Amino acid sequence: MEKNVYKVVLLPGDGIGPEVTEQAVRVLNAVSDVSNFSFEYENEFAGGAAIDRYGHPLPDDVLHKCQLADAVFLGAVGGEKWDHLTGDMRPESGLLKLRKGLSVFANLRPVAVPAVLAEASPLREETVKGTDMLVVRELTGGIYFGEPKGREGDDEAGEAFNTMRYSVEEVERVARVAFEWSRKRRKKVTSVDKANVLVVMQLWRDVVTRIHRDEYPDIELNHMYVDNATMQLVLNPRQFDVIVTGNMFGDIMSDTAATLGGSLGLLPSASVGGSVGLFEPVHGSAPDIAGQDKANPIAAILSAAMMLDHLGEQNAAAAVRKGVEEALASGARTGDLWRKGLNKVGTKEMGELICQQTLASLTNG
Ligand code: NAD
């Protein structure tokens, strides 16, 4: 039988980006070698690496290659070397251009705290153990992009303003992403808004309620105000399955949720909604540990698992997740999660262990 070939653009980026991308690709290759699909990679530059090479954090032709791929995988961008640059020339601007150019309007961030990691959480073990949620954040609208925005006068007598604006269509499409995901999970969606104060959030609540009633009556839906929801995230995170929220609230809530597992090095993400998905670890380029074989590759490897899911390779994705769990269960930890009594490993060794466990999971069915 002919193999499916997926075209993936790799943008390893800066700092630990290339190190963790290498391990993600290693795991992808290990699963594809024993599966009915393969990958065709194109290596490109993004962020600081692209500024050094091309003089821009994401040149148009790199974006164009990404738009023609089946998926884009990004490591991380940014670093001190480029901190003096401003506006469109900053490494992070390349990332915004990429998200916009791929029209990815929904950012998916799963946060799971398996029992073996619960003791590493800054919260009490019994509070976080078993947490398994997916935060769906609207990514291309809301107050970060709304017009009008501006600043008038000076800092003694002026004012400044942004606009939180959502169209019905923007809310409908991100709500559908959340409901669809909840069908693959525990069938519960919590929509987070501030409908008691903001008229734009009243529209948000009305639209989510209608989409639920008309299209997803099999899913349990509840609404929460953002202040309460953020408090609930740390008091009782296990109550959540899928959270859907706007751009700014999602920004704050997903970083709050990110602390539950004890390390940024565990958290994957996917940005979807356009024709090409973008997969990247949540963490940045971690210049403090770059080039030292210290970075935790799990966030990148789990981002690769999300990519496999998105491409329709659910078995392979599940095997990679199982591989990560088993590697952690064996006691292996990179420095960010290491405690006395556990086995301290580097980036490469962690990647190798996860490959072995993933393959074992695939071959054992
Ligand atoms: P960071 O996520 O790079 O690092 C924060 C802390 O977490 C550091 O102590 C780092 O060592 C640790 N850490 C992060 N990832 C880790 C991993 N995989 N394994 C072990 N430890 C890990 O955030 P920062 O320090 O605020 O930013 C550094 C640079 O990254 C900046 O230039 C920033 O703009 C950029 N950044 C990029 C992205 C992105 O590419 N998506 C996201 C956030 C920050």
Written overview of the protein:
- By secondary structure, this protein is an alpha/beta fold.
- It has helices at 17-33, 48-54, 60-67, 91-101, 125-128, 168-183, 199-215, 226-235, 247-258, 298-310, 314-329, 347-363; strands at 4-13, 37-43, 71-76, 106-112, 132-138, 150-152, 159-161, 188-193, 220-225, 242-245, 268-272, 277-281, 332-333, 343-344.
- The strands form three sheets. The chain has a ten-stranded mixed β-sheet with strand order 2-1-3-12-11-4-5-10-8-9, with helices on both faces. A two-stranded antiparallel sheet has the order 6-7.
- The protein is built from twelve helices and 14 strands.
- The chain folds into two domains: 1-104 and 264-365, 3-Layer(aba) Sandwich (Isopropylmalate Dehydrogenase); 122-260, 3-Layer(aba) Sandwich (Isopropylmalate Dehydrogenase), CATH 3.40.718.10.
- Strand 11 (268-272) and strand 12 form a beta hairpin.
- The two termini are 20 Å apart.
- The mean pLDDT is 95.
- Helix 1 (17-33) crosses helix 10 (298-310), helix 1 runs parallel beside helix 12 (347-363) and helix 6 (168-183) packs across helix 7 (199-215).
- The radius of gyration is 21 Å and the shape is globular.
- Residues 16, 20, 76-79, 92, 95, 264-265, 280, 283-289, 295-296, 299, 336 line the site of nicotinamide-adenine-dinucleotide (NAD).
Determine the CATH topology of the largest domain.
Isopropylmalate Dehydrogenase
Shape assignment: globular
Counted up, domains total 2
| Order of SSEs | EHEHHEHEHEEEHEHEHEHEEHHEEH
- The CATH class designation of the largest domain is Alpha Beta
Ligands, deduplicated = nicotinamide-adenine-dinucleotide
The tally of helices reads: 12
| Terminal Cα span | 20 Å
What CATH architecture of the largest domain do you see? 3-Layer(aba) Sandwich
Unreliable parts: none
CATH superfamily of the largest domain: Isopropylmalate Dehydrogenase
Question: What portion of the residues fall into strands of 2 or more residues?
Answer: 15-25%
* Spatial extent as radius of gyration: 21 Å
